[in-house]
Design a protein that fits this description.
Largest sheet of chain B: 4 strands, mixed
Number of strands of chain A: 8
Helix content of chain B: 55-70%
Oligomer: heterodimer
Distance between the termini of chain B: 84 Å
Strand content of chain A: 5-15%
Radius of gyration of chain B: 26 Å
Number of helices of chain A: 14
Order of helices and strands of chain B: HHHHEHEHEEH
Largest sheet of chain A: 8 strands, mixed
Shape of chain B: globular
Strand order of the largest sheet of chain A: 3-2-1-4-7-6-8-5
Structural class of chain A: alpha/beta
Radius of gyration of chain A: 24 Å
Helix content of chain A: 40-55%
Shape of chain A: globular
Number of strands of chain B: 4
Distance between the termini of chain A: 52 Å
Strand order of the largest sheet of chain B: 2-1-3-4
């Protein structure tokens, strides 16, 4: 078969790869410089106040007891109220919660349970249901108090409140959040997510040093007044925590980030992970579009670095990388098909002589790629040491070269869904 | 409702310094990567040059030996060893082309010497085949690296090269030694010897093959096997 008429797919040109590497380096160096030159805000001590946890729950019979038990062990000398908002669970969640409420009721500790008659399948609406309840039934108690939305599969060490609450002293700070790590880390996907959570928490921690924390994840402590000042959760977005954090910043308030790792259950199956990540990306697009006006020096590092570089350019790079990966795979496949049509059996010979290896390493793309990998390993070591976690190098390499691509593909799916307005739900 | 951060302007400027420094570091790493890469590549070009020179000395010594000694000694030459050195050089050249580009000046200069070595190897092989009654095939392969070449397609050359690689692989003897020897020439080479070879075989289009002295245009794998009369293993 004469294939001369059909040229093969062209290779990826360098001008495509280099900008990606350059932006990646720029982001990495910003983080590196923050480590060396930026310090945490000095603490203006906040006197401990009563705290109201809001726990939205739907069919969470399997983990709610562990979550509540952890809350009950808090070394906190003020009143703790736990408001469990049952989102029309169909299992025995409510029964378990009522039993827990009876068992743990004391002078300074109480568990309240309210139920939404009909589930909307939207966490923001469940949180808002709880907020409305608190602001109507416990209005007086909420003055100068704290409200902490908490996922029912998230577990707080006993010193979480006493560590984090004192950092709420600054007038312009509305909330404090912390490192989030997987509670389950035995299965492959959970192991990978441990690295992912470690790294994202680490970058958030560094962003905190330049007042650019833009997420209020599974557990964040808000001053109760925050919800009066900036409003309740947005029920239209799929990532209410990101939206809320952007809103906090849009009002020129801040969220601070402090060291006190907490654990949360993470998806262990491909299907559940994919669903979660597609939702996260989809929600990110919704929120970035809603708050695009924050891309301005008026909003400090949020407007000059976090949103334009890390989120927008970072997402663009990920999508570009996904496109390149798909293209490269097509390139290899068409080459193989072409060779087979010529009667050539593809042979994968690995030349590892000094000449070939050193010439391979002399490619600036490879040199820069290796440097970037080294830099990211240093970040990982720094992050792991900061929170006393251990990560195997082999796991990290799998994370970079396998799991990372999986995340990029989820991002691609979310992008397509967002562009074509395809339905994505909780 | 809005709280204006009094330190906002000051903080903005501080971050600008941070970002500028990050930008400078990124540019530095980029330049460092490019310069280091080019330095290593230059070193590899030197290694290639040394290997070329060694091979040239070897071939010249071989010719001198043949002119001094009798024909029986010529027939003792191990053609696979002779060819192996040339193949090694060819692979190095391919790697250099891949790294620096097919149209890189330094690579093209090295290629001219390489083609001379190929012609010397060809002469040795033909000599041995003729005088020692050895059963092997010699294929000359002419190709182009120019994208818009009136002589023919660059892709056709790539495909023909892959076919020839497969032929060489398939026709190895039971000891894994090659029995088909392919010598590759750039049809746009300025090398006088290569030009002479093209003239001798009337090469006007690419890809072209000269199999055991007979010229063919782009040829499919099955047809080459018929010509050399060696079925695939």
């Amino acid at each position: 078969m004469n294939l001369m008429a059909f040229g093969p797919l062209p290779e990826i040109p360098m001008w495509v790869v280099y900008p990606i590497l350059f932006i990646g380096f720029f982001i990495s160096f910003v983080y590196l410089l923050i480590i060396f030159f930026k310090k945490d805000r000095e603490m203006v001590k906040h006197i401990a106040k009563d705290i109201f946890f809001i726990i939205p729950i739907k069919n969470g019979a399997g983990h709610i007891e562990k979550c509540i038990k952890q809350l009950m062990t808090q070394n906190y000398d003020k009143k703790i109220t736990i408001l469990i908002v049952n989102d029309a669970s169909t299992d025995n969640t409510e029964e378990i919660c009522r039993d827990l409420a009876r068992r743990y009721h004391s002078k300074d500790r109480r568990i309240l349970i309210i139920s939404k008659g009909k589930s909307t399948g939207n966490k923001a609406s469940v949180l808002n249901f709880g907020l409305k309840y608190l602001f109507s039934k416990h209005k007086d108690e909420l003055k100068n108090s704290l409200i902490a939305p908490l996922d029912s599969d998230t577990y707080l060490p006993s010193d979480t409140l006493e560590t984090l609450v004192p950092h709420l002293g600054h007038e312009d700070v509305l909330a404090v959040t912390t490192w989030m790590l997987p509670a389950n880390e035995k299965k492959f996907l959970a192991k990978m997510q441990k690295i992912e959570y470690l790294m994202t928490s680490f970058y958030r921690y560094l962003l905190g040093r330049i007042d650019a924390v833009c997420i209020a994840p599974a557990f964040t402590i808000f001053k109760a007044e925050a919800f009066k000042k900036i409003g309740y959760y947005d029920e239209k977005t799929l990532t209410e925590d990101f939206e809320m954090a952007l809103r906090v910043n849009s009002f020129h308030y801040k969220i601070i980030f402090r060291d006190k790792p907490i654990k949360t259950d993470v998806p262990e199956t491909f299907k559940s992970l994919k669903k979660q990540r597609v939702r996260w990306w989809y929600g990110t697009y919704q929120d970035v579009m809603k708050y695009r006006h924050l891309v301005s020096p008026k909003y400090g590092a949020i407007g000059t670095f976090f949103l334009p570089v890390t989120v927008i350019l970072g997402t663009f790079i990920m999508l570009f990388a996904a496109t390149l990966a798909i293209y490269s795979a097509s390139f290899q496949v068409t080459n193989i098909v072409r060779e087979l049509a010529l009667g050539v059996i593809p042979r994968f010979e690995l030349n590892i002589d000094f000449f070939t290896v050193s010439l391979f390493l002399s490619d600036p793309k490879i040199i820069m790629g290796l440097f970037a990998l080294l830099l990211s390993i240093l970040f990982l070591i720094y992050a792991a040491n900061r929170v006393g976690e251990k990560v195997k190098l082999a796991d990290y390499l799998i994370f970079v070269f396998v799991y990372g691509w999986l995340l990029i593909l989820f991002c691609l799916e979310a992008t397509i869904k967002y562009i074509f307005k395809l339905k994505t739900t909780w | 409702m809005k709280v204006v951060n009094k330190n906002q302007d000051k903080k903005g400027r501080t971050h600008l310094k941070l970002f500028t420094l990050a930008l400078i570091l990124s540019i530095f790493i980029f330049l460092f990567g490019v310069l280091l890469g080019n330095y290593i590549a230059t070193q590899q070009l030197n290694i290639f040059k040394q290997t070329e020179e060694k091979f040239l000395v070897y071939l010249t010594a071989l010719e001198m030996r043949d002119s001094i000694l009798a024909e029986e000694d010529l027939c003792l030459t191990n053609i696979n060893d002779l060819f192996e050195e040339k193949v090694k050089l060819g692979q190095m050249l391919t790697e250099l082309e891949r790294r620096l580009g097919k149209e890189d000046k330094q690579v093209m200069d090295k290629k001219e010497i390489y083609e001379l070595l190929e012609i010397k190897t060809l002469q040795n092989l033909e000599n041995i085949k003729q005088k020692c009654d050895k059963n092997f095939d010699i294929i000359l392969f002419f190709y182009t690296n120019k994208k818009e070449d009136p002589k023919g397609s660059i892709y056709g050359g790539d495909d023909q090269g892959k076919i020839l690689d497969q032929i060489v692989y398939d026709t190895r003897d039971s000891n894994g030694k090659e029995t088909v020897f392919v010598l590759v020439f750039d049809a746009n080479s300025n090398n006088l010897a290569t030009k002479a070879l093209m003239q001798k075989y009337n090469i006007t289009v690419v890809p072209s093959l000269v199999i055991n002295g007979n010229r063919y245009n782009y040829t499919l794998k099955d047809d080459i096997e018929l010509i050399i009369q060696k079925p695939s293993l």
